[in-house]
Amino acid sequence: MSEIISFGHCSCRNADAESGTENKAQRRLGVDIYGVDTERDASSDCALLLYEIRFARDSKFKIHRGIVAAVHLEQFSSGKILPLELPDSGQIEEHLHNLEVNKIQSGAISALYADPCCVLESLGENEKQRPADVEIFPEEGIRCRVWKVGNHTMLKKVQAVLDKKSLILVHGRSLYEGMLRYRDACREANKEYTGRESFNYAAIALSNIDDFNTEYGMTIEPVISTCSLPEFRDLPLLLGKLGEFFNVNGEELEPVCESVSMHVQRALKDPENPADLVLYPGGKHIYTLQLRSRKHLQETEFDEKQLRADSSAMLYQRLILNHILEVSPEDLHNSEVFYVPGHMLNACEQASETEDCVAFFAPGPSISQVRDIAWDDIQVPGGLIRCNPLFPSGVVNFSVRD
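User: That's the sequence. What structure does it adopt?
Assistant: C-alpha cells below.
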C-alpha cells in the first residue's frame, strides 16, 4: 500500500475558554497536526493517532476503532488507493482553493483495509489505557476519543501490518483529489522537491473492514445513479434487455416526487422480497426488478469474483452496463454520464423534469463484498456506494506546508 510515516508535532485544540463550560470533554475539540516527520526526530511528540467511536442505540452500543496516519498521496492508477466514490468537480476546486490559502487539510478522508485478525486493534489497546487526549460528542449517542501515540515501535508494527495492502477510499475522494492537485502544484513550484515534504501526504482515518457489522460503523447507502445514456431513455428497449436477467414488475402511481421516493425505499428495503433494481422514468409508472437465479447468470461470461454474491451492486452494474447495454469503460467512469444526486427526492425530481431515467440500485455492496475488493484489488467504477464518514469531520487538522 501507500507509505505510512510519522506525524510531526500535534496539539489539542480547545474551545474558547470564555464559553463558560466546565465539561473538559466538551471543550477539547480536536487535534492540530503540524506536518510530517520523515526521520522520527526526537522532538516530535506524535507518530499517529488512535481513535475510538462509540455508537449508542436503544441501550446497546458498538465501539468502532481505527487509526489516523500520514499516508503518502498516490494516483488512483497505482492500485494502492481504490476509490468507490464519484468525485465532485466543484468540491475539488473548493478544497484546492482552501489548501492554497490555508495550507491545511481540514476534512475527513476515510479508507478501509483488510485485517481479519484485528492485529492493529490489539496493538493499540495498551496505548488506550490512559485518558484520551481528545474526547468529543459530535452527535447525540456518539462519543469520539483520540489518543496521540509517539511510540516508534508501534508505528513500525502498523507499517508491517498494512504493507502491500490496498486502501479502499470510501469517503473524501473530492478532498483527496484536491490534495493531489495541490501536491502537483507544489512540486511544479519547487523543482527540487524530495517527495518527503508534507504536501506529499494526507491525514487519513484507516479502519479495519473486519471491525464492522451491519448496524454500526460504516453506513452504506443505496446507490442512486441518474443515467443520461440514450439506452436509458428508450424504456421499452431497456426493459426488454433487462428482462433477460431480471423479473420486471411495473406499477402505476401518482407522479408526486415524494411518494416516488418513499416507494423506492420500500421496494429496496422490503424484508421478504427486496428489489434489486428500481427504474423510474418519470410520470406515473415505476418498475421494480429482481435478479434471477445464479444458475441463469452462469450462462454469461463472468469470472468468480463477479459471481460471489447474487446481491452485489457491483454485479448489477457490470451486468447492466457492460454486458447488456455494452457501455464503454470510458463512459463507466464519466461522472457527467452517471451523476449521483445527494438524495432520492432530488433524483425523482430530475426524472420528472427531464428525459432521464433514474436507476436505483439495491443497497450494497455489503461489508463482506467490500472486503473482497480489498483482498483482490478489484478495480470497480466509482459511485457504487456512498459512505458516511468513518471519522468525524473537523476533529483533525493537518498542516501541508512545505
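The two ends are 24 Å apart (CA to CA).
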